[in-house]
Amino acid sequence: MAKPGNMGHSGFLRYPNDCMRIIINIFVGVVIGFFIGVSFPTANMPKLHLAGSITTCIEDKNSAFATQALLNHTWPSIHSHNGNNSTVHYNDTSKIYVPKNPRGAERLPPNIIVSKSDLYPRRLWGNPSEDFQIQQKYLVTFTVGYDQKNNIDAAVKKFSENFTIMLFHYDGRTSEWDEFEWSKRAIHVSARKQTKWWFAKRFLHPDIVDSYEFIFIWDEDLGVEHFDAEEYIKLVKKHGLEISQPGLQPSKDLTWLMTMRREGSEVHKETKEKHGRCSDPHLPPCAAFVEIMATVFSRDAWRCAWHMIQNDLVHGWGLDFALRRCVEGAHERIGVVDSQWIVHQGIPTLGNQGQKQNGKQPWKGVQDRCRKEWKMFQDRMADAEKAYISKRW
Fold first, then answer.
1. CA distance 338 to 340
2. Among 233, 238, 328, residue whose Cα is nearest residue 282
3. How many CA atoms lie within 13 A of 200 on its CB side?
4. Can you say whether the dihedral through the CA atoms of 127, 129, 132, 138 is positive or negative?
5. How large is the C-alpha radius of gyration of the chain?
6. What is the reported pLDDT for 94?
7. Is the pTM of this model over 0.85?
């Protein structure tokens, strides 16, 4: 028969004895340390949090790792003692406050701050530095409904692998787009019955899209048979355009002559409008003007335009007349690219997302709000200018 000391409870009895020996050893160490301290009063010994260590040992009497817990508790304090007899507090955040950091990040060391991001999808495995075979230089966004899938499919195929594709869905249908191979690589954002400027204000912050040289913010009803995105970029760079659009195929439905394509021209930056429309040949709509249906922004121009977009004015009417404020020498750096042209099909898809009210058709209510927003935007801009000038002068 086994001796009582060898029974299964022996492990239970051993751990309290181990703890008791540790406590006795610590006590003896403290006494010896006290006499050494009296003998050498100027010695600067590292602090040991004994109370916490003893408590840990007692509470962990049933754990085989009680001794290790004691060492883990005291080790950081012992090793924080450096050669200059000072303690390094690695977790002491009270010593960090950098007013020049981005708002809200003042308590972070500057070298850890990442103030900009991107839209590049990342892998869930492997080395982060090896995530990309290619980093796209440009971004194109379309605000779409599934009914226009074939039109968008044709448009997306005009953009090379240098472009990140982003779809803003106003009808809530996203998974159906996976019938197109390119859709599986695209970024999809869905919010029902919202406009492209609503999406742009919320998902295209300048610090998010800063990695892209140019940002295309396009509608879904554009015919692109005569358009090539890479050639378009070459012409934009050649002519120094900060804000641009492709020329529109001539049509009786064109609102502005400035946006109409010119035969035999690469780019044009000014035009003659209908009588009474131009107060100055260097101002919209005769110059420094593109429409908001197929706008292309440089990185710097978009940073300005994003700040001008209003949170509540979602249709964007009036923005095209104000974009010149975002470019120095706007009449030379805003223009229409004629040799890469598109067709505006004028499909009222977003208008049909409206709601019938007071006997008016859904599209009519949307159109009425567009006009109201244009007036509101003009008033806000005028009031802001007056307030600035009054305060300054």
1. 6
2. 328
3. 30
4. positive
5. 34
6. 79
7. no
